[in-house]
Amino acid sequence: MLTKKDFVKVIAEQQNTTQKNAEAIINAFVDGVKSVFAKNESLMLTGFAKFESKLQPATLHHLNFDPEHPRTIEVPEKFKHSIKASKTL
Fold first, then answer.
1. Which of 22, 29, 69, 83 has the CB geometry, 3.0–4.6 Å to 11, for a possible disulfide?
2. Which residues touch 41 (CB under 8 Å, ≥6 apart)?
3. Can you give the pTM of this predicted structure?
4. How far apart are CA 18 and CA 20, in angstroms?
5. Contact at 8 Å (CB) between 57 and 80?
6. pLDDT in tens, the chain (89 residues)
7. Long-range Cβ contacts of 13-18 (<8 Å, 24+ apart)
8. Residue 52's beta-bridge partner residues?
């Protein structure tokens, strides 16, 4: 498995640039994806991947550890983020 440092070297060689510039490009991409997720939005990069935010509805969980005192708690709704690689990748 490549580390970020290894990947920076690959990008630097492919783009004929310095490792510092390659790292800045990678960091900008990661920051962009983070900002999309922070807004609970989705991003489709055709031919690469789909970065998706889905609202998971609130659910009730029954805690029956003690049969004499069963409890139910509500887990509030929240956004779940996922990344799915393109089939053509």
1. 22
2. 53
3. 0.79
4. 5
5. no
6. 999 999 999 999 999 999 999 999 999 999 999 999 999 999 999 999 999 999 999 999 988 888 888 889 999 999 999 999 999 98
7. none
8. 82
